[in-house]
Amino acid sequence: MATIALAPPLIASGPPGWVVFGILAVVTVGAVAIMNASKQADDDFADDEPSSTESCPEDKDSTSETTDKPKELPQNPDDLLDDGYEETTDPRTPEHIRRFRNPKTGDEVEFHKGKPGKPGWEGKDHWHRFNPNKTGKGDAMLDKNGNPVPKNSKPSHIKPST
Amino acid sequence: MTIKEFMMKYSLYGSVITAWNWAKSHRLVLELDLSNLNQNDYTEDQDDFRPIILIFENCTIVDELNEGFDGFSNGDARIIEASTIRKSASSTAKQGIKLVMMHDNYDVTGEKLVSVIVFAKELSMIVPDAKY
Asked: SS3 of A121, please?
């Protein structure tokens, strides 16, 4: 814009003004070209650095209750009480069985203490996890990955975490 | 067979009673998914369950929780403990099975604890599936 404004007096001042006008014109055209190239480069090669408002990437090793993977179940059922679960065992239940519920997540599980000398799962510590969306015995429990499975089926027996 | 003989041969732990029927006044007919997983002879190639029918003759039951349990017409009951009981108060000793189970109607009430003793003079077992 300044070059255009200065053009009439420079041209009117004769050959020296023409030379100055020519230099100014070349410098102006060059500057415009450089600015356009810089703007194009910004558009084509945008910076990927995270801004301060971007959320952190998800922690793949997280055991947070908000993840889809069900919580692993402990060898000692009392450990669940430290994780926000409440014991809901009917006091008349045989002592080898205890039931727990997490009031925040709705997760409901049952611990079976193995009886020495008994065959099969009756002789081994294990858990059952109940399907909150059950429709019948065919999907009444969940396997270790949280998938619906038949009540008391083999995959419904969940080994305590080691 | 006698109850004792049955209990010596089979474990009812982990099995699911799918139907509870009184036929005549003292004949109890139970349909079960017997858990193969908890039998002494279980092998990995077997199904998890085998359907069986148990018929208790001259049967009476005692509701140990005094809640009026006499059976169920809806849902099923998973057995969490089963043991043999012998009642010898009189000269005619009776054998029974104590069943502790979780009955589920699949309604909003959730599972309910049931504890009963099934006394019977004789027990017979029918296996509808011939492969067992």
From this structure: helix
- Give the dihedral sign, CA B31/B63/A151/A136: positive
* Calpha distance B86→B66 (Å, rounded): 20
Compute CA distances B33 → A12, A114, A148, B16, B19, whole Å: 110, 21, 18, 5, 10
Instruction: Kindly tell me if the per-residue pLDDT of B67 is higher than 80.
Output: yes
Chain B closest-CA separation from residue A87 CA (Å): 15
Residue in A135, A152, A154 nearest the CB of B16? A152
* pLDDT, average across residues A82-98: 97
Beta strands (DSSP E) in A42-158 are: 86-87, 97-101, 108-112, 126-130, 141-142, 148-149
Distance (Å, whole) CA A49 – CA A2:
38
Q: What is the complex's ipTM, to 2 decimals?
A: 0.92
Q: Is A157 on the interface with B (CB under 8 A)?
A: yes
Identify the pLDDT of residue B25: 77
